[in-house]
Design brief:
The chain is an alpha/beta fold. It contains nine helices and nine strands. It has helices spanning about 20-30, 70-75, 95-105, 120-130, 145-155, 175-180, 195-200, 215-225, 235-239, and strands at about 5-10, 35-40, 50, 110-115, 140-145, 160-165, 185-190, 205-210, 230. The chain is globular. Bound molecules: SN-glycerol-3-phosphate and magnesium ion.
């Protein structure tokens, strides 16, 4: 039976509040979600901020890539008006503030690292440095689609759980899982088969599915052994 315990707020609560912002994370906590997922990347001057896209146009009033701007510029962006007028003035959060907020809210954090090419390793190094100097949420799982970033986290902050993100489940999954000592795979729900979660569980790992906004589909995936689903719309899944 699908319950709130199976839900991870995707990019905060992406259908209900502007994605990758503090209001979205706070709403996930108010809805009673055990976990929230966010995306982080590096500014030009080495500050980790929350944003999904490489570029700023879709979710802010700035232009260009995150990577080409200093934090001072990114901090001036409006990351809320594009979503709804009531969120005007919402800022792009810094990751250190998000770690502190999740800790205060008691919500677990799925921290997805989205390095701009070719910054797979230095983005991971910045995350590792921050994790070593900041009070952390009680539950924290790191992930990235970039295996080089997951590998760097394995080397630099091995004490934190790691998941590999995947659009397609790769043939070399076993080798990668063992080398990176993965706790889980985060796989596109569209390519998940009924066999996948049992196969991973047999190998000692969990399977989580993104992004699921349909209640029947979420229930099916949970029935197949998927541990949790990343969702933009938690109320739609719980009915
Ligand atoms: O963490 C995985 C999930 O967020 C899916 O990917 O593109 O929405 O960051 P994306
Ligand atoms: Mg993500």
């Amino acid at each position: 039976m699908l319950t709130v315990q199976h839900l991870i707020g995707h990019r905060g609560t992406a259908r209900l509040a502007p994605e990758n912002t503090l209001p979205g994370i706070e709403l996930a906590a108010r809805l009673g979600l055990p976990w929230v997922e966010i995306d982080t990347q590096l500014s030009r001057d080495g500050v980790l901020v929350l944003l999904h896209d490489d570029t700023l146009e879709r979710t802010t009033n700035l232009h260009g890539t995150v990577r080409e701007h200093d934090y001072a510029t990114l901090a001036s962006a409006d990351a809320g008006t594009w979503f709804a007028a009531q969120f005007a003035g919402t800022r792009i959060p810094r990751l250190d503030n998000v770690l502190e907020r999740c800790r205060a809210l008691g919500i677990g954090l799925h921290l997805e690292i989205k390095p701009a090419n070719p910054h797979e390793t230095d983005t991971a190094a910045a995350v590792a440095a921050l994790l070593h100097t900041t009070a952390l949420p009680e539950r924290l799982i790191l992930s990235s689609f970039a295996s080089a970033t997951v590998a760097a986290m394995h080397e630099l902050a091995p004490e934190h759980l790691r998941a590999q993100g995947a659009e397609h489940f790769p043939e070399n999954w076993r080798e990668l899982s063992e080398r990176l000592e993965l706790e889980a795979w985060h796989v596109d729900a569209a390519v998940i088969t009924p066999q996948l979660a049992p196969m991973l569980r047999e190998a000692g790992m969990a399977l989580r599915a993104w992004t699921v906004n349909d209640r029947a589909r979420a229930q099916e995936l949970i029935d197949w052994g998927v541990e949790a689903v990343f969702t933009d719309a938690p109320p739609a899944l719980l009915g």
